[in-house]
Design brief:
two-stranded antiparallel sheet; mainly alpha
């Protein structure tokens, strides 16, 4: 198998997203982590947001703060 560096980066990024979603699902089933219990509606909302494509990509703190001011 011969993958380009960009393809490998994309696959790693995808895997990281999947791991984050799976972690959230597990926390949702268990209902708590080191910080305590999670509200069920919070877990559902978080899982839904994790599946959505991000609306913005921030490359600097300034870009992030600028976007926050526009909200």
């Amino acid at each position: 198998m011969n993958h380009s560096a960009e393809t490998i980066k994309d696959e790693i990024s995808s895997l990281r997203s999947e791991v984050a979603v799976l972690r959230s699902i597990i926390i949702g089933f268990l209902g708590e982590d080191r910080e305590g219990r999670y509200r069920q509606e919070f877990v559902k909302k978080t899982l839904k947001a994790a599946k959505e494509k991000p609306g913005f990509a921030f490359r600097s703190a300034g870009e992030f703060l600028k976007q926050l001011k526009n909200i």
